[in-house]
């Protein structure tokens, strides 16, 4: 206004006026770079002729400066926040990650750190010293990821795994894990982070740790399948404590308690009975020797699991296979008993016992059995130092092992049935599902399913109630042949039992002594197959009474007690003489006699237990009488039923 009101005209004044109008028009619009530049130029022209007073010009310049600042704010902020300098200070990154891991509270700031690292990329795209800037970007990406893995992700994985292991194994009393004493890091913060974007990938810490744990647990379960339960617990704990969604490994794919499969044992029963030792009380088979550091065992649970896998039909097949095996073994047994050297010695021993039994209080002399045991070695020994009696003892042990296996099959079958039938509420009153389904008028498929269920329940209850007596079957099938007149040579068996028990006790003591030695070849702590075999064969021959008439175990007990008393007496005499060496010898003798007596006692108990399975209280004649009485009772009861049923129906009359 002031310039216009001035009436003096000049070209210079016109230029100033034009510049001011231009500045005014330019300012009335968006504050772009060009407009601000034009305003600046226009004002430099417009202020030439002292158009503005000083106090007017300063505020205007201040406002224009502020306008510049606001207009360039984004660019200025970007320039100030550009972190491309980090490219030259990459050594800071690992230290930063270590700090984040140690404190575990600023984990959310990782996003900002990676944003800062991404600022280096635009500058790197202008690199000219390589054929392609992509090579530089690739190296940069690789380096950053390696540092991240080493200083954060791998540490995190190891720490989480360690924490899960220690939590699951608290019963082992490992390290002190009291958080008030050793401190505590809450690593769960890392798993609440959103995935971090870096180059063309997303870094998901939660997914990375989950994958690591899944892989580790799976691999370790495949190596030691028996640890599957521990790793399942650790998976559940990872979900509860850290919110990780773990993958189920589905290992093992079968029941681990299977042990050796019944089917495999059945096919190779001859190998099984020679390689495994039976324990009568625990009903367990233990491997004799193994190249591994551990021995395999087979118990009722293993057998029950096998039966559940293959069905109860396998039980009868197994007993059939055992029968075939026993046939072959009894053929060898008969040959040994028929051998002239053996038969003549046994007949001589029977005659000798009959002559001296009145003088010996009806007890078979220990010396006679010992003489037989030693004398048989003269007939020859095998390359590995075994006499014929040793081999005969092994044969009887194998027969006993086969019987132990049959017993285990029956127990396993009952175990399997009982675990299957435990879901039936009342065995006495089982409803008929087929009838119920028909009443409801359900579909044909449902009726078929109900029929199937009824038949399964029927099978289960029948199997559970009966439980086939396989021992009785295996006695009945062989007994007639054993007791027939053409096999009279087998009747001498009872007299060979004393030397056999002597041989067994010697073998058992040597096996147990090997347990304490460094080389444990041939070591064993149980072999009840022998007692089972002796009890079974005595039953087949119906010779329990003949064997009991020898009073063999009483004779052994008396012999050892007499020797122990004699040694104790000598010890008392020698203790006054102060002869150390002699005393030591006597102590060893005393200990050896006690060990022998203990072994005989154990054998006696095992044999007594085994005899119970074969009803040792009854002779063959008494059993036959009992059988006849049962048959007569059943006939009478059936006759009674018929007579009581007759008058009910006049048509039948």
UniProtKB/TrEMBL annotation:
Q: Which domain of life is it from?
A: Eukaryota
Entries under InterPro entries matching the protein: WASH-4_N (IPR028191), WASH-7_C (IPR028283), WASH-7_central (IPR028282), WASH7 (IPR027307)
- Domain called WASH complex subunit 4 N-terminal: residue spans: 1-83
Q: Where is this region: Disordered?
A: 621-653
Q: Where is the composition biased (Basic and acidic residues)?
A: 621-639
Pfam families, sorted: WASH-4_N (PF14745), WASH-7_C (PF14746), WASH-7_mid (PF14744)
Report domain WASH complex subunit 7 central positions.
85-428
Q: Example GO biological process term?
A: endosomal transport
Q: What is this protein called?
A: WASC4 protein
Recorded source organism is: Ceyx cyanopectus
């Amino acid at each position: 206004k002031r310039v216009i009101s001035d009436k003096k005209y000049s070209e210079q004044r016109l230029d100033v006026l034009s510049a001011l109008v231009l500045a005014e028009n330019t300012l009335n619009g968006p504050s772009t770079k060009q407009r601000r530049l034009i305003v600046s130029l226009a004002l430099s022209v417009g202020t030439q002729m002292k158009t503005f007073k000083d106090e007017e010009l300063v505020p205007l310049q201040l406002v224009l400066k502020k306008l510049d600042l606001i207009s360039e704010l984004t660019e200025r902020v970007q320039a100030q926040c550009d972190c491309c300098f980090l490219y030259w200070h990459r050594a800071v990154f690992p230290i930063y990650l270590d700090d984040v891991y140690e404190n575990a509270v600023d984990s959310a700031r990782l996003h900002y750190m990676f944003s800062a690292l991404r600022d280096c990329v635009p500058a790197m795209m202008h690199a000219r010293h390589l054929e392609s800037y992509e090579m530089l970007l690739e190296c940069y990406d690789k380096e950053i990821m390696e540092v991240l893995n080493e200083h954060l992700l791998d540490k995190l994985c190891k720490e989480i795994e360690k924490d899960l292991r220690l939590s699951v194994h608290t019963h082992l009393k490992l390290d002190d894990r009291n958080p008030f004493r050793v401190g505590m890091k809450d690593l769960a913060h890392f798993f609440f982070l959103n995935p971090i974007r870096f180059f063309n990938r997303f870094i998901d810490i939660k997914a990375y740790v989950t994958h690591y744990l899944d892989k580790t647990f799976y691999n370790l379960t495949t190596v030691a399948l028996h640890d599957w339960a521990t790793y399942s617990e650790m998976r559940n704990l990872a979900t509860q404590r850290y919110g990780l969604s773990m993958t189920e490994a589905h290992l093992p794919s079968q029941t681990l308690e299977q042990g050796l499969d019944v089917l495999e044992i059945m096919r190779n029963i001859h190998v099984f009975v020679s390689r495994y030792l039976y324990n009568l009380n625990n009903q367990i088979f233990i491997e004799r020797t193994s190249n591994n550091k551990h021995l395999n065992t087979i118990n009722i649970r293993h057998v029950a699991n096998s039966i559940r896998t293959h069905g109860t039909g396998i039980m009868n097949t197994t007993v059939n296979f055992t029968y075939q095996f026993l046939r072959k073994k009894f053929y060898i047994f008969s040959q040994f008993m028929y051998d002239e050297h053996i038969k003549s010695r046994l007949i001589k021993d029977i005659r000798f016992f009959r002559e001296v039994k009145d003088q010996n209080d009806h007890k078979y002399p220990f010396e006679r059995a010992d003489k037989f045991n030693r004398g048989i070695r003269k007939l020859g020994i095998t390359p590995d130092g075994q006499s014929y009696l040793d081999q005969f003892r092994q044969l009887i042990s194998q027969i006993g092992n086969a019987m132990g296996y049959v017993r285990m099959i029956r127990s396993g079958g009952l175990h399997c049935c009982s675990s299957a039938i435990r879901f039936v509420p009342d065995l006495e009153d089982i409803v008929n599902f087929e009838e119920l389904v028909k009443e409801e008028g359900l579909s044909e498929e449902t009726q078929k399913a109900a029929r199937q269920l009824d038949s399964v329940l029927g099978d289960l209850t029948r199997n559970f109630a009966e439980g086939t007596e396989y021992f009785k079957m295996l006695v009945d099938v062989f007994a007639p042949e054993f007791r027939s007149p053409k096999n009279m040579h087998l009747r001498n068996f009872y007299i060979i039992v004393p030397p056999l028990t002597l041989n067994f006790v010697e073998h058992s003591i040597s096996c147990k002594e090997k347990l304490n030695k460094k080389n444990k070849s041939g070591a064993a702590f149980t072999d009840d197959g022998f007692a089972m075999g002796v009890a079974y064969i005595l039953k087949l021959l119906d010779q329990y009474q003949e064997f009991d008439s020898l009073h063999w175990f009483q004779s052994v007990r008396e012999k050892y007690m007499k020797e122990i008393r004699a040694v104790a007496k000598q010890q008392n005499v020698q203790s006054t003489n102060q002869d150390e060496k002699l005393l030591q010898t006597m102590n060893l003798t005393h200990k050896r006699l006690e060990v022998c007596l203990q072994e005989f006692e154990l054998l006696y108990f095992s044999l007594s237990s085994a005899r119970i399975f074969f009803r040792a209280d009854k002779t063959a004649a008494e059993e036959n009488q009992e059988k006849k009485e049962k048959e007569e009772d059943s006939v009478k009861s059936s006759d009674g039923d018929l007579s009581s049923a007759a008058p009910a129906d006049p048509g039948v009359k």
